[in-house]
Structure to design on (584 residues):
């Protein structure tokens, strides 16, 4: 208004030097730490600057007050179970992606084609998932930004636009297995054709998202996700208990890494289905709903965010273990049948031996898998149908939220969740409807899910490497950056994954089946073209990933809690409160 002075922004560095008569003491990092009270939106102007009211509160503190404040901030964070429950939610949203229909298909393929030998891949992928979620939580909490927003500020415009298109494709691809899984459930319960079930998934997801209009709608959605995951876990555990598993082979496959001929492509699919790239954008955005303004409270949130995924990850591991075990037990005969006391060949004493499958692995699909349950076609398929619905609906909601964060961050476009949901579901449903209507066989739909899993595995390092670079950046995170050990371990994993993925291009599942023709063969020309194409794809893929390995992000905004690590006032930046705008 005319004649009214605009409140001036006061940086923590001004207060550190003793501005307004406060000398000899330092006020740590965030003015909002005053009184250890979270800051309200009224304390922040549209440009994010701290208002004069808040700055005057800070400047009027006595030396004794600030000493007590510093002591409070340096107090060790203590675990409180009630507070932990209050902050529970974002981790469950992220982990639910690890038990979606795409993940169930990866488990089913691993168990039916390679018995228990791929359990170690699932286990270590789950461990990597926890590390990735921990990095996501730390970055989102201490930077006050979700990954897409930080990417837009830290990389050239052409890279940002390219990455936005790429991640949008990943999010849409992630949604395809969800609608196919829901279509399978509709076929099990009602006998509907697959395309009808795919279309029905649109309506049910919209019904679930209606709760966003309720009071505390986001928390209600988190509770719904938790309920669906719990139902799914209980149902599969009951079936595993009834059906049983070969315990010796199970532990051997878990503890001893084994790579079968032709299993490389499936291993990439498992990694992509477990450590899903869209989760990085989801969790860094979801934790924004839990961030307080005080440093001590922020430390608690990070502790809880780091611990929260452990339980859901254990649950997802149990679900994956159950599906692999059920598939392996039904497809592969046991070396030592139950009740056999003699061991004439010494096979049981020597260790687990995987015999030839009694079923064609390709004949076991997500649709008919329930027919091999011990509880029979009726009861077993009811359990499996409910599990598919729970996995599909929970995962569909999380991909919708991810899409909102991605669009908001990369191109600064905030649109209502309803609009985003309709657009995302339509784009995801379209290819699934076409495939379901034209092919109409579960084997073909399963093949589509398998391709999506591999695409996610190939996309993972492209999304994960920038997150690691930003989380380790001194200018962005200050003293809150990830440790040097975690940085190098994470980068080593990504570089290994890049070359592992590149090697898969030469397997029989991709270009390898066309490369072996000799000069006299009619397929010789195609073999040469396949070799050239494989080389080009490999070079492009490795180049893209290593661009992010060597390209250091350009930091234009620093983490609010890292301001004290800066030398100039120009480096300070207000807290970003717009991260969750897309969900309201």
């Amino acid at each position: 208004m005319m004649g009214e002075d605009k409140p001036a922004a006061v940086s923590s560095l001004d207060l550190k030097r003793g501005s307004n008569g406060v000398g000899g003491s330092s006020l740590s990092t965030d003015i909002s730490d005053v009184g250890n009270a979270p800051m309200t939106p009224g304390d922040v102007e549209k440009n994010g600057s701290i208002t004069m009211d808040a700055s005057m509160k800070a400047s009027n503190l006595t030396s004794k007050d600030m000493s007590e404040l510093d002591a409070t901030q340096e107090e060790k964070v203590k675990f409180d179970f009630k507070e932990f429950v209050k902050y529970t939610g974002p981790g469950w949203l992220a982990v639910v992606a690890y038990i979606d229909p795409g993940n169930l298909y990866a488990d089913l393929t691993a168990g039916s084609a390679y018995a228990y030998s791929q359990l170690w891949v699932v286990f270590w992928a789950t461990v990597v998932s926890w590390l990735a979620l921990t990095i996501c939580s730390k970055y989102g909490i201490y930077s006050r930004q979700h990954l897409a927003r930080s990417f837009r500020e830290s990389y050239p415009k052409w890279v940002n636009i390219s990455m936005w298109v790429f991640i949008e494709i990943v999010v849409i691809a992630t949604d395809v297995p969800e609608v196919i899984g829901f279509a399978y459930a509709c076929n099990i319960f009602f006998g509907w054709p697959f395309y009808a079930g795919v279309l029905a998934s649109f309506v049910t997801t919209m019904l679930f998202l209606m709760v966003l209009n309720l009071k505390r709608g986001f928390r209600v959605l988190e509770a719904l996700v938790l309920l669906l995951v719990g139902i799914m876990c209980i149902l599969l555990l009951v079936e595993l208990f009834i059906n049983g598993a070969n315990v010796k082979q199970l532990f051997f496959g878990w503890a001893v890494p084994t790579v079968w001929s032709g299993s490389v492509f499936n291993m990439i699919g498992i990694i992509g289905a477990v450590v899903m790239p869209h989760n990085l954008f989801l969790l860094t955005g979801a934790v924004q709903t839990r961030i307080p303004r005080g440093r001590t409270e922020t430390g608690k949130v990070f502790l809880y965010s780091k611990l929260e995924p452990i339980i859901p990850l254990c649950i997802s591991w149990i679900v994956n273990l159950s599906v692999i075990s059920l598939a392996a037990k039904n497809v592969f005969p046991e070396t030592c049948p139950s009740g056999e006391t003699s061991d004439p060949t010494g096979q049981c004493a020597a260790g687990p031996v995987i015999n030839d499958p009694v079923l064609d692995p390709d004949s076991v699909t997500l649709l008919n898998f329930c027919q091999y349950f011990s509880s029979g076609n009726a009861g077993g398929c009811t359990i499996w149908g409910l599990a598919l619905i729970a996995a599909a609906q929970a995962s569909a909601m999380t991909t919708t939220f991810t899409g909102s964060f991605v669009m908001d961050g990369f191109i600064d476009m905030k649109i209502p969740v309803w609009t985003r949901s309709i657009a995302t579901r339509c784009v995801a449903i379209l290819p699934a409807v076409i495939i379901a209507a034209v092919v109409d066989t579960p084997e073909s739909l399963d093949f589509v899910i398998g391709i999506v899993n591999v695409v996610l595995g190939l996309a993972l390092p492209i999304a994960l490497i920038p997150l690691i670079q930003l989380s380790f950046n001194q200018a962005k995170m200050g003293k809150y950056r990830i440790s040097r050990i975690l940085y190098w371990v994470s980068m080593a994993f990504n570089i290994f994954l890049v070359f592992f993925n590149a090697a898969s291009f030469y397997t029989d599942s991709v270009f390898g089946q066309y490369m072996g023709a000799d000069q006299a063969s009619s397929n010789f020309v195609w073999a040469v073209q396949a070799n050239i194409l494989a080389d080009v794809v490999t070079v492009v893929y490795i180049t893209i990933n290593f661009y992010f390995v060597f390209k250091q992000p350009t930091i234009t905004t620093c983490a609010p809690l890292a301001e004290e690590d800066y030398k100039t006032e120009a480096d300070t930046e207000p807290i970003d409160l717009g991260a969750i705008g897309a969900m309201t």
The chain has 23 helices and no strands. Residues 81-335+354-504 form a domain with the Amino acid/polyamine transporter I fold (CATH 1.20.1740.10). The mean pLDDT is 72. Residues 376-411 form the longest helix (36 residues).
